[in-house]
Amino acid sequence: MALWRLESHCSMNPLTIGRELVSAWALAASYPLECLTILQVPRRFRQSEDAVILIHGRGGDRTNLLAMSLLLRMAGFDNIGFFSYPTRQAVEVSASQLAEMAAQADCGAGVHFIGHSLGGTIARMVVEQSENGRTRSLVTLGAPYSTTQQSPREVAIFGIEDPIVRPPSGATFPQGMYKRLIVLRNTGHLGVLYHEEAIRITLSELSGNRPK
Fold first, then answer.
1. Most buried residue among 12, 18, 58, 123 by CB atoms closer than 10 A?
2. Which positions ≥6 away from 47 have C-beta within 8 Å?
3. Which residues, other chains included, contact 17 with Cβ-Cβ below 8 Å and sequence gap of 6+?
């Protein structure tokens, strides 16, 4: 898949810089808490019929989405998994491994995917090839993309001042490229992980797609 508009520079305003610095500190502080990412509610106590899989970005770590996972648990999602992959592993290999993890997920009502940066691209590749009805939701945060992609189930969230993955330009995008496109102000590549609106949209999308 061709990744489009992958950039390494842009100017940021002071608010965005502050948000990025705080987000970087939060990411660094989360690394010692990796033990929390392997906690699972025993099957007999679970309320969720659906599962959530979170995928970090290139060079990241499963703890990067720890805060999101805790908020998901508070919203009633108690079957949550994290997918990790080596930094230099081919995207296609990572997508194949994620697809296998999703197929083996201990659930009977489908899977929700949340991916940051390259993790969003990997999740998109899996969803494109998944069986109808298996995917409940796909939310990406600052994920590389192609204008020729067809991802009609994807809610894509970007920071307008992201120096790594710039959001699609213009107010419109090709039909089928996304289900919904959100560009957040005063936000960069890391800040989108903790932005209150990004979190609200993510929780709303997943909650709206839960089995009735």
1. 123
2. 76, 78
3. none
